[in-house]
Structures are given as C-alpha cells and as structure tokens.
Amino acid sequence: MELNLNRVDYAHVGTTTNCCLKVIHTTSVDGHLSTRRHSTIKLENNTEGGGGGGGEQLIIKRKGSNKRRNKLNENETDKLIIGDQNGVLLCMERKDGNTNILYKTPPGPPIRRLMMGGALGSIQDKAFIACGTEVRGYSRKGKQFLAFNSNLTESIQSLYIYGIDMLIASKNSFYHFHDCIEKSHFSCSDNILDILCLPITEGGWVGRGLTPVLACADKTIKVLDGSRIVYQVPLNEVPTVLHLFCNDGGYNKQKVLFGCKNGYIGLVDLGVDFWTMCQQFETKSFGTISTIHCYPMMGDENNTQPDVLIGKDDGLIELYSVDENNNLTFRQSYQCEESITGLQGGRVGNGIHPELIVTTYTGWVFGLTTEPVFAINSGLDERGNEAPEMEIKVQQMRLEIEQLEIKVKDERERFNNEMTRLNQIASEVPTNGNLIGNNTSLMAFTVNDRFELRKELACYNLSVELAIPIDYVLLQSDVKVDLLDVERNSAVISVTEPENESGNALLAVYRCQADITRMEMRIRSIEGQFGTLRLYIVPRLVPLTCKVCSYPIKPLALHERIHYFDEHRPMNTLTLTGSFSIAEAHSWLALCLAEVPERCPQAETVTFNFRSTFNGGTQLQANYSKGRVSYRSDNLSTIVILRDVISRIVSMGQIKVHIVCDINEESIKKCLELIWPKLEYQSRLVRQLELARGLKFLKNVFI
Fold it and tell me: BBS7 beta-propeller domain location, by residue (predicted)?
C-alpha cells in the first residue's frame, strides 16, 4: 500500500549537516500515549469523577472517555530539535497550524552532531550536541547542564549517547567516556564516518559490556571491546551511516542497519564472536545514504515492525517495509531537490497521522504527512470550502504578504545601489579597496561539494550545493577528462575549445536555471594522465562572487579499494628497493590511487588491494615496508603507469631507488579476456547506431 505524502513546511534554519535532527516522541511507536501522559489522563478523569473508584476504572466506565482520549491523542504532538551550522539549537512544536519555538540557544560554533539522551528506560528528551571539541547538554526546557571539553586536537565528527556513556569520534580517533571519565580509546588509520553502541539488556548479553560499533572509510564495520578490535565486517562500499534496527537492535538487540556510498543499504547481525550479513542490496539511486530511521508509517497498532526510512544526498527519500523475517522491501519514494541531512518519523503536525520529518542542507524543515489535504488546514471542510472566519484570515495574510514583498523589493534595490557605489569607489581608489571588505565579508557562502567514484558507471560524480541559488559554474582542468550526461541536470552546458598554449585541457560552463541550489556533473578521466580539476562556483549575488574548489585527478583514479585479491591470475610485478621510509612509500600510493588513507597504518608491512572499475575488473596489490615496495597486477598498463609516476616522484625528491619490472606475458591474454565483453558491447552499439542512421535516411527518402 502506497502512502499519500503531502509536504508541509515547518521552519527554515541555517545550513545543516547530517544527524542534526531529532524528534522527541510524546507517544510510543504504535501511537499510544506514553506512560507519563497516560497517568495524567487518569488523574484528570479521577478529579472530574468526584473521587469514586480508581482512575483506570473511570477510563473504562466513563461514558465518552474513548472520544476524549482520541482528542487528547490528536493534541499530543511530537517536538522537533534541530542544530545548524550557525551553532543554534532550536526546539519547536506545532500547535493549531503554527510553529512555536520552545527554546533557542544563542549562535556559536557549528553543530556537527545532535543526539538525544537521558536515563535508560525513560523518555530521551535531553539534547547533546557536538561543536568543535566540546559536547554540550541541554535539558528539555533548554537549560544547559553540561559543557564537556574532550581535549581532542581535532573537531568531533561523530557522537553517540547511551545513558551515562558518551562515545565520540574525531577523524581518526575514537573515545569512550563513562560519566565524563575516559574509559577506552581506539586509533584508526582510516576515517571514522559514524559510531554507535549496541544496547545492553539482561538475559541476551550476559558477560558482554558496552559494545562500540564503528563505520570506517576502509569499507569495514569494526566491532570493539574496549580498545581492541573483536572483528571487522568487510563491505563492498564505504559505510556512511549506522542505525540500530527497529531503533533498539531488533529482537536480539544486535542488529544494525548501515547505509553506504553509491546507495547500498544492508542489515548485519553483530554477534559476540562472529557476524552474519542478513541482507545487502542496492537502493533506487546511486546517491550516498546520509540518514536512516525506523518508524511505523502505516499507523497500524497491530504492525509490530516499523518501516525503514532512508534519506540521501541527492534528495531522494525511500521507504522500506519490514516483514516477519526482517527482510526489507521497497515501498515508495519521494524526490526532494536538496540534499537530505536529517530524516525522522513522528507525529508533529497531528497526533494521529504519522509523518516524515525532513531537514535539508539549505535549512528547510518540513514534514511529509499522511494527513489528508483537506484536514491540514483546519479552515477547510471535507469539500474544500473555506469557513467564513478563515476567509478573513486569508485576506489578512495575503495583504501582509504583499506588504512584505514590497519591502523586500525596496531593500534589494537599496542594497544593489549601495554595493554599486562601493564598487565604484574601490575601482577609483585601488589602495582603499578595503572599503568594501566589511561588506563583501557578509557575502561569504559555504559549499557542500562531493567528488566520489561511481564504480557502476566508472566515472566520478561531482555534486555542488549552496544555500543560495547558483548562477553558473566553470569547470577547468589541466588534464583531459570526459563530461558525461546526468539525467537530473537541468543546467545548460557550453564547452570552449582551450588554446594550445593556455595549459588547459577542458573549459566548460554550466548555466543554471532560476532557484537551482544543487547540481551534479559526471567526469571520467583517462588512466595514466593526472592533474587538477578546478571548479569555479558563482552564485546569484551582488556583487559578483566566486569560490574555487580543487580536486586531484590521480593516475589510477578509476580503481576502487577491495578486501580480497585473486592470487590465481598471472601477475606482472614492479619492485622498488632503496633507502626510503614506509611513510614515503605510503605517500607514493596515495598520489596514484584514491581511497588510500591519509595516515600510514601503524604496521611493519602494509597491503592494499584494488580493482579497476573501467577495464573489466583487473586487480592491483600494493605491498610495502621500509625500504621495499612491491606492486602486482594482471594489467601491464597499470604496472607501467605506476613505474612512470613513481620514477618521476623519486627523481624530484632525489631518492635513490632500484626499480625492477617483471612482465608475465600470460597476463596480457587474461587482461584481454576481461576487457573483451566491454569491447564487444561497444562494437554492437556502434553497429546499431549505423543501422539506425541508415533506417532514418530510408525513412526520409521514401516517406
């Protein structure tokens, strides 16, 4: 059954990041009032009944009590808490169709993460935010009760609260604090993208303490015991977000949902000593999954399994139903034109109808409600006719909007005239160019950009998003790259042939339509060529402002990192020996391939495996230690590219290195076998194109 979702805008805040939206539920997941609210109803009925009998008996026997309870259910709505990049923590609720602010903190450092906490088994209504290296806690009334300085050298990237236990992670370090006292620490060579801990329950987890779970950029999920890795779950994609299945880990409290780059989602059972992959599949788009939540959207009290809600950075929201075997099945989707940073289920606009609560990068907070359209506005009846008092209110609002539009127009003209005057002064007196410095600083804007490999398409996806409309973007590259079509890209592209002596290999301009804040481009490089791709972003601002973003194009950019290496293929080997450190050998690999960690792993010997996404799946293995590096690949071209690039690097660094290249002729045949299906497909495509042109010519001649 497909739900009819209607969008209702609630608020607009500053730009947001992932995991900065939470819902405080006043009802349980099945829609009943919570214990605290239910006892209040009993007390009220007891008072009204004159003191005869217990509250529970009055609820059962009192005439019309079910109708009263339904009315209370409708009025009991959930509350929203949002943290934005301005450092503002905002708590709000909906009453009578209006958004009411319960509390709002002053601006401060950007809020990176938001988590709800409280005593285990009670309502989680205390807000914990990570900003910089500090964790702050706020009560349900907005009073700050915690200011914990983690003393980290880097900003906190991930935060998880479980009772009095606090789990935080920076880029490469993980810390576990128990009642604000450090209990364990773990250092990771790859980036830590998300963290959580498995809930502790009596009976099922006897002898097992708090179990942290880390999602890392090396395509693994790491399960820890203190500072020790118990085991790792290898994945095909980079996990970006973790979430407890059914919000509590499922029936055994150890099931975890994970979302990945390229749109993969999975469910894994994390046992004490081993793991079991329950389900892993592709979703409806290649967008990176940014948020996951579980909530029963059908609103059926007999439905014990909540639905799985996922949001992506390409604006797609997907709903999956869960059967009795814990298998996920796609139900429906909703397309938003902005990146999704937060997604929760709840009853915010109405206490009866469930809805999706969404935040976007640009700061929009809206709900996708299942409430019928005629019921969203209380001034409309079921036939859609306006009540007389509502007509007066609508006329007043229209008049107010017209006055605001006139005021905005006047202020915009005044602003444009002032900026034009300042620009003229700055051009006439160059030495006093700082006259407009204080004004142009107000025009600074942030860019939410991603440059990620799409292995299914063997290309890079470059996405750019601003909080303000984009006027146009300019792509400039000093190495030849191919621009591929994007289905949802409405921008008009114009490519300029660069001059021979300019040093440019690509100049392309994307002109956007009005009110476009996000756009995507797809780029495919040629392996063996490397350089820099620059993106010049120009928003619709006065005065004209531009921001430049740079992205490295690496020699083997179309290779992805994998966990396993096929030893049975014929291999070509490149060996380097000399007086170099393991850190230098690691830097050579990082200059040649993507998905290599910035830090060198703390080991005497390091091994990485890679696979090509373009030429049929040829492999590469890099094994290096102090004074020795070995590269093995079944593709001779890969070995030659590595030899040429590393030779140039060591020559510039004046490092003495002895290079030996061992060629296996059998590898050439094996490589051609891998590439042949793609060549055959391209040949058929060219043949079909020629036939289509011939048929089109015959149609024009004889018809």
Answer: 74-370
User: What confidence tens digit (pLDDT) does each residue in 151-166 have?
Assistant: 898 999 999 999 999 9
H/E run at residue 700: helix 666-702
What integer is the mean pLDDT of 586-607? 93
- Label the pairing between strands 173-178 and 181-187: antiparallel
pLDDT at 359 over 60: yes
- Residues 291, 338: contact at Cβ < 8 Å? no
Q: Measured between alpha carbons, how far is 453 from 443 in angstroms, rounded to an integer?
A: 32
Output the DSSP codes for 524-570. Answer: EE-TT--EEEEEEEEES-SS---EEEEEEE-TBTTEEEES---TTS-
Using alpha carbons, list the distances in angstroms from residue 111 to 442, 444, 563, 623: 21, 19, 35, 40
How many Å apart are CA 215 and CA 449, to the nearest integer?
Answer: 21
Which of 355, 300, 303 minimizes the C-alpha distance to 324?
A: 303
- Joined together, the tokens standing for residue 558 give 């179309």
pLDDT at 394: 77
CA distances from 406 to 233, 394, 417, 616 (A): 59, 19, 17, 61
**320 near 330, Cβ under 8 Å?**
yes
The domains of the chain are located at 6-33+76-376, 388-441, 447-553, 559-670
Q: Is the peptide bond before 543 cis (omega within 30 degrees of 0)?
A: yes
Q: What string of H, E and C letters represents the secondary structure of 95-111?
A: ECCEEEEEEECCCCCCC
DSSP symbol at 106: P
Q: Supply the CATH classification number for the domain 447-553.
A: 2.60.40
Tell me the residue type at 387.
Answer: A
Q: What token pair was written down for 563?
A: 């966990």
Q: Tell me what pLDDT residue 501 has.
A: 83
Lowest mean pLDDT segment, chosen from 27-36, 109-118, 550-559, 582-591? 27-36
Mean pLDDT computed over 641-667: 93
Cβ neighbour number for residue 496 with a 10 Å cutoff = 11
141, amino acid identity: K
Task: Give, as one character, the DSSP assignment of residue 197.
Answer: E
Helix (H/G/I), strand (E/B), else coil: 152: coil
pLDDT band at 398 (very low <50, low <70, confident <90, very high): confident
The answer on pLDDT for 66 being more than 70 is no
Q: Residue 19 carries which side chain, given as an amino acid letter? A: C
Q: What three-state secondary structure class fits 22?
A: strand
DSSP-assigned beta bridge partners for residue 559: 612
For residue 628, count CB atoms less than 10 angstroms from its CB and return exposed for 0-12, middle for 13-18, buried for 19 or more: middle
Across 52-61, 429-438, 563-572, least confident range: 52-61
Helices (H), 29-106: 35-48, 55-61, 65-75
Q: Which fold has domain 559-670?
A: TATA-Binding Protein (3.30.310)
Predicted TM-score (pTM) of the model is 0.85
277 has which bridge partners? 268
For residue 74, the model assigns a pLDDT of 58
6-33+76-376: CATH homologous superfamily? Answer: YVTN repeat-like/Quinoprotein amine dehydrogenase (2.130.10.10)
